[in-house]
Amino acid sequence: MKSSISFNGKEALWFLKEKGSLPREEKALQAMEALESGRGKGSDFLGWLHLPSEISSTVIDNIKDVVEDWKKDIDIVVVIGIGGSYLGARAVIEALSHSFAALLPSEGPRVVFAGQNIGEDYLAELEDLMKTASIACVVISKSGTTTEPAIAFRLVKQHIESTYGKEEAKRRIVAITDSSRGALRNMVSREGYRSFIIPDDVGGRFSVFTPVGLLPVALAGIDIETLMDGARDMEKITAQKSTDNPAVQYASFRNALYENGKKIELLVNYHPKLHFVTEWWKQLFGESEGKEHLGIFPAGVDFTTDLHSMGQYIQDGERHLFETVISIASPNRSLTIPEDADNADGMNYLAGKHINECNKMAELGTRLAHVDGGVPNLHIEIPLLNAYYLGALLYFFEKACGISGYLLGVNPFDQEGVEAYKKNMFALLNKPGFEAQGDILRKRL
Using one digit for the tens of pLDDT, what is the confidence trace for 304-324? Predict the structure, then answer.
């Protein structure tokens, strides 16, 4: 099967001490084999590995049932979640929706997000919005006690119950949570909400192909079956123990660059709809590899926009970074630059050219300039930005992340470090059981 993703690392080879087209080839293949066989660290969290090929048709049908039900009379769906319970869905929705969808007529409900911050103004403004439309809610949390989504859900639940009544709230609230335990699962049992399961062996940042990602995406009117088709084909391609495997190639190059002093990876896109794909990618790699005082720091830029803010640093700043550029071979729309009789801006040399040609030349020129300036470039290309190729791209990154973590020597599937700030926050908020720690912390402030 031909890959829907092409990877090219030739613009990074000059910066490596290793010779050959694929650095650390043997170790990269061993890491891939450890992942596929389930013999690596954190193997009890590999449920995502075969999700595209093994997802139940019943799950897809149940998602479609919710979409059909809410299509009748719901204007706005508030999706509540944080981290992996939020970023995957938002990445897909932003990438595959009209850029100005919020200002255009809609046949189905619009999806908005809450629970990803503790902004008082944000949540107060969400309440303003909910008063203007017919509201439903998808709440996503394994435990139901994560602070940010729990606060948001209290507010949204209260609005739905006071506006439509407790009985109608059963239809307007859907929970995605643990199969058998946790505060949210208990609430589902008590209140009678419809629910979907977050598999025990799938961590949040790998959950985009579970109902966590699929239900919000489907509610936004996106074809989740085509999304899964792309992921399923990429699952097969990246299971090959071969140096032609693009996930092996990417993981190998980024680790070789890290060993050669490149500590920061910038994910670069030239398509504004990919901004939240970058945000999703940052969590995927940052939470998977940032352990034991190791790991590449994942950051992102949107070009050409950020060339006018971050371009100077990338070109001439400290040489501790490399770029991974996501290219889209062809646009979905066609638009040419008009000619202007006065040519006051001196731009008539571009008249008749497609916008995409200008964007591509900006991309090629920037890549050459940055490589000449000492910034290695890795290049990933997909043919089009659609559901199929986006599904393939997201799965490609998941697989490459697992391989890359094993190459680094860490467990890419745990995240103990995220608990430190939570314990301090609980103590400062006087959560029962944290009083003594709160007293200690307040003396430090």
Answer: 999 999 999 999 999 999 999
Provide the whole-model pTM.
0.93
128 and 259 in a single domain? The answer is no
Q: Residue 287: name the closest of 32, 24, 117, 45 by CA.
A: 45
| Residues in Cβ contact with 69 at an 8 Å cutoff, skipping those fewer than 6 apart | 171
> Parallel, antiparallel, or unpaired: how do β-strands 377-382 and 264-269 relate?
unpaired
Q: Which residues are catalytic?
A: 287, 308, 422
94 vs 81: CA distance, rounded Å: 16
Residue 120 has φ and ψ, to the nearest 5°, of -65, -45
Please give the helix or strand (H or E) that residue 49 lies within, else none: none
Report if residue 439 sits inside a domain.
no
CATH of the domain at 164: 3.40.50.10490
Pairing of strands 377-382, 6-8: antiparallel
Average pLDDT over residues 7-27: 83
HEC secondary structure over 106-131 = CCCCEEEEECCCCCHHHHHHHHHHHC
Q: Which amino acid is at 93?
A: I
Residues 234 and 217 grouped into a single domain: no
